[in-house]
Protein 1
Amino acid sequence: MKSFLLIFFCCLSAAAFSQDGKKVQFVGGARSLISHGTLDPEAEDTISRKKSTGGYALIDLGFKINPNAQTEILGMIRIKNDFGGFWGAGVTFDVRQLYVRGVAGKIVRYQIGNIDYKLTPYTFYNNDFDLQMNSSAALRVKEDVNNYESFATNNNTWRQQGAAVDFGLNFPKVIKEVKFNAFVTRLNPSNLANIMERLYGGGNMIIKQSEFLTVGLNHVSIFDLKETAVGTPAYKNNVSTLTLASTLNKENWRLNINGETGFSSAGLVEDTNALTDYFVNAKASFELKKIGLTASLGYMNNGADFRSFGAQSKRINYNQVNSYFDRYTNDQVLRSTSMYDLYNDPTYYNASISTGIMVFNPAINNVLPFGVATFNRKGIYTSINYQDKKKFVNLDATYYRLSEVRGQGTSEMKKFDFAKTKLDINVSNMLDWKKAQTINVGWAYQATNRAPSPFGGVSLTTQALQVGGEFELVEDLFLIGNYSYFMSRGNELLAVRDVDGTIVNFTEYHIQARESYYAAGLRFNFSEDVYLSAFYERNGNSDSGLNPYALNQVMIFYVMKF
Amino acid sequence: MKQYFLILLVGTLVLSACRKDEIDKFDGPSLTDIYGEFSVFTTFDVSLDSVNFTTGETVYFTAQFSKSVDWKIKITGQTSGAIKVLTGFGSSISQSTSTWIGEITEFPIFKNEICDVELSFLNEPDVFIDQVKIIGTKTNAGFLISDFESGFNAGWTTFVQSGADMDFQIKTDAFAPENNSYFNMAGTVDWDYLIGYVYFKASAYGAPHYPLSSNPNNEYFNIMLYGEPGTTNSIMLFQFTEDEDGNGGHSTASEDMYSQEILVNWEGWRLISLKYSDIPCLVNGQPAAPNGNGVHNSDKITSVNMLHLANPASGFAKSKIDYMIFTQNGPLKP
């Protein structure tokens, strides 16, 4: 029996927390921003303020304590000072991060407090924000700030508060290894009256049969703790999925087959009419190793009633009111949220999971507004990735051809096209220059159509282009520049939903929006994690041609991570 | 390679399990209903020209439209003025949504008469007219105390004060909400609340107790009450005396009497329905403990006492009653 299984992780985990033998370390980051912006509306405006100047300095100071080789404690506080505020005014103190993690009994790895977690794209996943393409230069600086503020990682995790454990088992025969992951987090506390304590828990079991085959069983559940409030029915959202990954690796080529399928239920615990549905998503990828070319073909079918709020919550909260030059013109019209605002204002970003169908902006993302787990979508998708050996070019292109599974208001179904491309050009590698010269291009196109017979016709098109460059002039000093363009035009019939998510009506949506952006400036890298960047940017915006305006802004960022 | 083909097979099976198109379903309200043009596909029709509700016949209405609409059918008796309203939402009107068993929505009750039937819509101007003839009115299950069509029962007890303009009698005229007759009560008594009363004793029907079940939750007392326009001072007091010891009489000192006061402060006819178990014990109009066993013994009611009261300072009081009936398992649906 003793050779039957072998528990692992202990050595690896213990080493990971030893931190070079230091008992206490300081970690964190610091940032300072100075900005000056002007609003330039085309219409007469003698009421609104046209200029805005501000800035802040903040430091996130964390104490990482290792009382022993198996335990790590992190506490991080934030001190923020808006420029012009001293002696208490404009100074805030917050707790930004707290956790304890370690390895228990050299077997189980655990983390309590703040955890960054994800499972699969259909269970627990923080999707990239809408039409995120290939941010670079000035936009990358702003995107990094937004991600840092909303605890978004490049790994699509959600920042939650709770506990997580994982451990693994090794087997000598039949199965190579089995990994177990489990978590429970708190989505909202009870108000001790009519709102119940809501938790989110789940986990998975990943069975690696061999290098050839991996199978995963995943389950997540959003649920209310009964009797933590009075007179309120308890809610639940359960999602169970099966993942499969298979790889056939040969000398010149590799074939991957990945898939996930599962089902969900959502509704009140005692409701016999809770929504239930299922999904299938499978993809085959073929890679030619010598050429550096990978081509994929996939199929997805997400039921109209599939609900998985851990994977369908949006990173952007479109209920957020614009706080930067919020009103303009003599009619004091509200300035609607633009693509520029999504880069400019970190408060648009969610750091929590929403139990319910979130609001989305059809002009920005109407095809997969809730990520790959978006309900009521089916169809094929294909992608190509090309990376040449000299790493001169990296091309990533994906195209979705989808339709609804079930119509809305009519049995006629909407058809969706979604193409997105990322192209990275490394000029330095091509010309053998020592100084880094990179150009990044991103392009996205979305189209939604429904036949106009006899009514309910939909035709909505969105297109976005981003071009950015970073050119090293002298060592560590970069010239940075951006150009981006966004347009959306057409019409859509948007579903109006009640609190349960049931469609109760439709509203007509018309848009004729155009947006252009350019930026130019410098960035100086003091080290890999410390830089100073200053740039000028201009954003021209025409929303339905009614109230065009331009925003000009000079921004100076100092960013440090330690 | 064998394993690989196995995986491919499993993958193919998973894909083939994908759902069929839900081509006949859609989420939300129909766009046709929101944006479509309204027209009538099948004209409005009545299932019977003449209907006999007494024999259990029913009548229904049919029509089909191009879209779902809020529809309303109003049936008005040409003679009685009785009104029945049927409403619904949908793209058709059928037997399941429009069956009429002869009941009313507004008083009076239908007579044997010709009724005008009008179909209209909430957001459409179209109106359709038809007619149906009632040749037998709806009958109601229960124990009828009186509809005053057969005159004053000798077994009833009555007392009328000697005030001014006193009028305590059965009348036969167009005011009757049911059939042709009702009981009229009017007068001015400036020295006492009591204007007059009628005690409807069970003995008037040949038995010491009303023939009701012993379950007070199933027994309902119903009466049609008329509020005279211009007066709001009539108070109707209904007393239900019980014979708990089974000696054939009621002792106020040792047996229960439950009472319900109703201030008649409305105009026109109204149906009052009381579940017997809900009727309280009152002393001088205030809730009090019953003098007997405190149990609503609906099978031991000896008398239904109806007292017409009014504040002596309020002057002339007038009201009418009709169709007193005990029903089982629910209120009267006239």
Note: Chain B touches chain A through 26 residues (CB under 8 Å).
Protein 2
Amino acid sequence: MDHCSAVQKTFSRIRYGSRLLLLLFGLVVAWTNANSVMAETTGFEQIVQSLTTSKFRDKEKAVRELAAVQDKRTMPVLQALLDARLYYRKADKRVVIVERVDGQFRMTDPVTAEELGTVPKRKIKKIGINNKLRKLLKSKLASLSLEGPDPSVRLSAIEQMQGQLDESQYLYIKKLLEQERDDDVRSAMVAALALYELDNGSADQRIKAIEVLSGNLAQVVSNRLQALLEQDDLEKEVRKAAIKALDRINERLKINSIIETTFFGLSLGSVLLLAAIGLAITFGVMGVINMAHGELIMIGAYTTYLVQSVMPNYTDLSLLVAIPAAFLVSAIFGILIERFIIRHLYGRPLETLLATFGVSLILQQLVRTVVSAQNVAVSNPSWMSGSIQINAALSLTYNRLFIFIFAMIVFVALLLILKKTALGLQVRAVSQNRSMAKAMGIRSDWVDAMTFGLGSGVAGIAGVALSQLTNVGPNMGQSYIIDSFMVVVFGGVGNLWGTFVGALSLGVANKFIEPFSGAVLAKILVLVFIIMFIQKYPRGLFPQKGRSAEN
Amino acid sequence: MSYLQQYFQSDRAGNSMLGALLAIAILVPILNLAVPESSVFHVSTYTVTLIGKYLTYALLALAVDLIWGYCGILSLGHGAFFALGGYVMGMYLMRQIGDRGVYGNPELPDFMVFLNWQELPWYWYGFDMFWFAALMVILVPGLLAFVFGWLAFRSRVTGVYLSIITQALTYALMLAFFRNEMGFGGNNGLTDFKDILGYSLQSDYTRAGLFAASALILVLAYLLCRNIVNSKLGRVVVAVRDSEDRTRFLGYRVEYYKLWLFVLSAVLAGIAGALYVPQVGIINPGEFSPLNSIELVIWVAIGGRGTLYGAIAGAILVNLSKTWFTGVLPEGWIFALGAMFVVVTLYLPRGLAGLITRKQAQT
């Protein structure tokens, strides 16, 4: 059995590379791996099995032996023993780690990590421990994790111990600190020691400890300092130092929360930017109101969904495939809309608005009929989940970070297309003076179709990004259309930089108002602000300069 | 603009529409109340309420046509004024419930008791009196339109910009009315009405009365609008639509004309909402949704804008087909509505009324 799982593991590791050589190499590695695992297993398994003895002295011996074996599987076993989750099956005396699920016990083999199914309580027996054993387990577990080779394990171990050291652990960590090389672990150790001294040291030691802790953002630190301040017989200097330290911590927390809000705001802003930038092209450059813009975003999101269902085993890759696919699909829809409807309505913006609204209704209903009226599930690739931990109080999620970067890339790409390519030059020429551009030999209807395709394609790309943040459903486009228009109009029509500044500033403003007013009221306030702003500056933040009259 | 001149001189289509409206205002209640149910000519109360609802929609469409057809202001937020009028009426009807609510509180409507509110918010005072509510039906939408229009027209926000910010206005109001803290029943809105002016809303006579009132007010509003567009002021308004700058250069204060018309239109929409609520028995924030406002623009577009009677016909026709479609083929309605938007703007820029005038011009 060990053979099989190890080979499988190795195989799955190299599944993506399909070359024969690699495969052969893999087989060899797998074979040798499996052999060595087998050799270790026998020893390890024997010791684990010896835990089933009823004599505490033998159990103690087994625990000491387990701690001495350099094995990754040791810690879960000891931890389970400490938590009273280590049992053995009455039938064959096989040791298992259990987990309580709905009154039943789900068993895992501690040696092979194999799932062994669920059983009722009467089929298994707990391996009991006494206080002496418990103490031994605690210290063995602590030293196993603190002296282990992996710094992240050491770090989480020390973070768990912060604030609950006893004297022996305090001395032990003090000793360990001298050999520790990793900076993060070192500072966590220093904090743990300081927390101990805070409670047990002399006044001088306490002040020193407070100085060490000041600026530390861990929750336990501020709790302890707070508790310290509540003591009545506190020395004056210690109190002063503690108050100062708490002030500093609160100040840093405030800065952190500002950074966090700004990040959320920029994230919202980047979503707005993605949704609005396609519109900035079709509306801004061509003066065409496309109410179906939101539905082009939705089509992009559904394309992501389709691509994922075509290649279900490659979620990580599918998103990268979906980006060009969504661009193409939405661009084709956009060009069709332009060719069949908008082309006939140039110079009648209000009619264009109504006709494209009809298109948006049709597209929504089409999705409802063809796919489903319910939301569809778009999965997130593994590289987009998780977050970066900046410090104890601040972490930024990867998906928001990636979408922000992605929005920036799309923006720069569009800017380059409009400023550096022949198409961009023609687009700008047509948008500034259609008849003059025509006179210079530019095929204005071809340029219109291409511009519209470009703007629609960008909407599709926005759909890919949004599918990672929000629900994908037939109505998703509608919720973005008003926001997008607000961004474009606020930033100034015909100006991509205006859209950029508009989107990010509205996003940030929204997130900064939210804590005071709640999400809905924040949105209303921003809308009202924009309505007022447009009254004062009808041409937006960055108005297009020109000599043409309004009508 | 020959078709316009034609209608300044004679409004044959409009006159026949007025005749028809007056006829149904009298006939339908009689057929409902006096004719026994077994008869072929009996009109069920359901139908009365349904047509009554259409008539309030028609009044709303008339209000939109007045500003869009004659002044070129495409408001995508007129549903907001309609809903505000509806909420004002809803507040009156809520207060009329008195202690007959589920919680039996004589002062507070049920939803406030449910939210643990202790006293009536100040803005609910006075709504137990009909005259006050009726005044508010005019004042609330009118005031909002005045403030909004004054700001917008003074700074010369026109065309698509205006359309978009009117849409933002109704969207913001929708979000606001969804909040429980606003004190208008949140998500559920106002409902469970009992009676109006002492008459039970469930009774056939009250329903017939509301129907007749809707028809008569529609007739009066039509006459008012026709008088306005035929007056000197109406001609200036049309001039604004056709060339705003030129009118301004001729010395007219364009923004005053637009503002005046916009406020009037909002008041008409508010009255329509106030007539709508007692007939359908509920008002909720969904009425503010931008989709509603834009849908009512298509009623006007299909009927034919700039004709007044076209708007009324369009509203009734589209809603009739909506009722029919959602009964027979619920999925198909959105397709049909979407197709209407496209086909009408592409091939029927003057709507159905345009078809009639074209035929008349040919003969």
Note: The CA atoms of residues 93 and 313 of chain B lie 30 Å apart.
Protein 3
Amino acid sequence: MRPLLESAREKLRRRKVVAVMSGKGGVGKSVVAALAALAKPGSALVDLDLEGASAPRLFGLSGRLHEISKEGIEPLEVGGVKVFSLGGIVGDRYVVLPGYGQAGAVEALLAFAKLGDSDPVVVDMPPGMGEELLALSRITDFLPVLVTTPSKASYGVVKHLAEYLAEIGKKPAAVVLNMAYVDCGGSRIYPFGRGEDARRLAESFGAPLYELPIDPSLEDYVGRIHEYRGPIAYVVRQMVEGL
Amino acid sequence: MHEWSLALSLVQTLDRWALENGVQIKRVVLSVPSPAQLDVSILTEAFDTLKRESRLEQAKLEVRVRSPRYRCRACGYEFGQEEVDQQIRQLMGQYGEEYPLHLIPELLPTFVKCPRCGSHDIEAELSIKVDEVETI
């Protein structure tokens, strides 16, 4: 018997778990996950991008360690969100892990995270379809939120992820088309195409599609994402309300 | 401090299991890898405190601390705990109370290198698991 696997399962059993994923890297999963957690008071954000943890950077928590109490990992709280990240365990250093290490880290983070009454739990997934995805699937049922950009390079990978999820009986709760357009004096310009492939993908699974604009000001909020009130946060909030 | 959260996880998990199976638990054997550096006396004390008013009330906890065998997947070198002890001591000195392998022993490859080739690509059985449960 693996007590941590069982604890992680029990901990998430009665909570809504929203997994922000893509398969492709660099499409904005971490920003979407952070803004999704911020959109709903009482959320927790668990960063399962073990080797590329972004949540600490986005929230200005780099180098800060979680306190470990008798009840487990104490959250780092910012903007009303309880943040848990491996970065809060190892500090500001690289993480390199084989598959069994990734599985152990996912189970332990979720088993020991002191979630309190947090609901929903938003999970920021790493790129790829590796051990973290398998480990999360072993632990809990989750609502997949798929993030892509209009690029064919991104869409193709996300499509494979959606097909895999369908095979294990999960359909996307939402598809997010990130970096979709630029708002130019009230009219929308789509520099990378209209994202028709992503739209068809969402329609084929009966999932709503949310277009996120390119907002250059977002970069100013890396380190204080909880203060961002721009148009991306607005659309992500709509997405969360629709879940 | 982490021994308490591990004991809590163990007691809660086994209490649920005992309830589902309609049994009381008499003895539990928990196997932990030595790099976790768990304090067995604190773990046992925590277990004995937390088991009250559960289906583990009569249970005795035995903790087996096992020394893993390691294999480097890069060069194939196989080695024992004694060859990584120095690296573990350094890590404990660096992190102190917040020693990461205490909480997640599977993180070992992030911190420990193969003593022969220096690779982090190290394989070992590092999970915390229940080896035996005796019921009444």
Note: Chain B is about 35% helix and 20% strand.
Protein 4
Amino acid sequence: MTSTMEHRRGWWRRNRWGLVALPLALVLALAAGSSRLHEYWWKRGFHEQAPVSSGVATLTDEYDDGYLRYPIEARYSVASFRPADDVTLYGGDPLPSGVRAWRLSLAVEADPDVALSGCTVALVDTAGNRHGATDSGLDVDAPRLASCVPESTPGPRTTYGSTAPPAVPDGEDPRPPTYRTDTVFVLPAEAVPAAVRLWYALPRYVELPVDASAD
Amino acid sequence: MRAPTVRRPQATAGVLVVLALVLGQWLHQQLPERADASRPFEEPVAVGGTASLRSGDVEVLSVDGAPSVARKNGPVLLSPGLFVAVEFTFTPRGESSSLRYGELRDNSGRVLPFFGSSGRSSIDCVGRLVDRPTRCLAVVEADPASLAGAGLAVAPSDIDERWDSMAVVDLGIDADDVTEWSARKQFLDLPQAGVMTRTEAP
């Protein structure tokens, strides 16, 4: 009897390190089989928020399509956010009832040599709904396309189909190191905007709070 | 006196690991890969009803048919069979989203998939504002003999409809409908898709 118990104790003693390592091995095995989680969930959602300090978000990202890579670095802050009740449809007709327009001005600070075209901007309301600038499909007489860069001096950009790094076309002025972009959003009237969200390639994104009480 | 302990050679552990791997591989090969494990979540709906999908709500407004159809500012399309036009609304939930996939399930059990907002069989359904219905249109060209009792399925993705929800519309077409539609001489004027049918809150 005694020898049997000693034998059992001996087995636990002999295998103690293996038993300690077993949970770790299990975690590693699950992690090794989690590539789909990374590809289909992590990379397709808002999971890496850019750090925000004193109302300024610093986005450090990278464009990488497998052929071309370049850095994306900029600092963003909300310059102003107001209801845009003066906005009409093209032709002067008022917006239909049940919707409301909001005007966002973003302040951007970035090295003029960094390519910044191609972002997406949206508003997030207090219910967690996301609203893009062109969602309504209404012919609003205002800048609806979220411009990530100044229209006349967009700075470096890529050439479609080329693997050449982004460059400013000949004869075009460089983008200023600081600038503002204005976008008008049309939201359901009952939606209360809570934040602006900007991203190039998920999962990294910028989120800054907006104050919808400044009516 | 201490009981003698039996120490297995370390090779035994390696053999057991290899055996476990072989067993796992064999099981993987033997177990059936069932397509229905990844089937979409079907939400049945009839004309006049509403199906609740993951990304929004589908309300089926009407079903009509004719040998020729015309979109607004578009050419008249003529068919040796029939075009069936299904008008519905899509109310996106959480964010703007679209329905890009359609399939006709005919009365012989055949499935005719289609996608894209142009062409002879098409689905045009861009959900606009959250909680506001947008008019959508699915048009499918089919053999008249296959239509009585046919259904239409619509889903968000045109490349992968697995695991997502899908509205399956009972079109309610009978033989009399097919006869009536086939006799039409005037083309069917298709409603314009992509506009909100209501901008007020529900």
Note: Chain B touches chain A through 20 residues (CB under 8 Å).
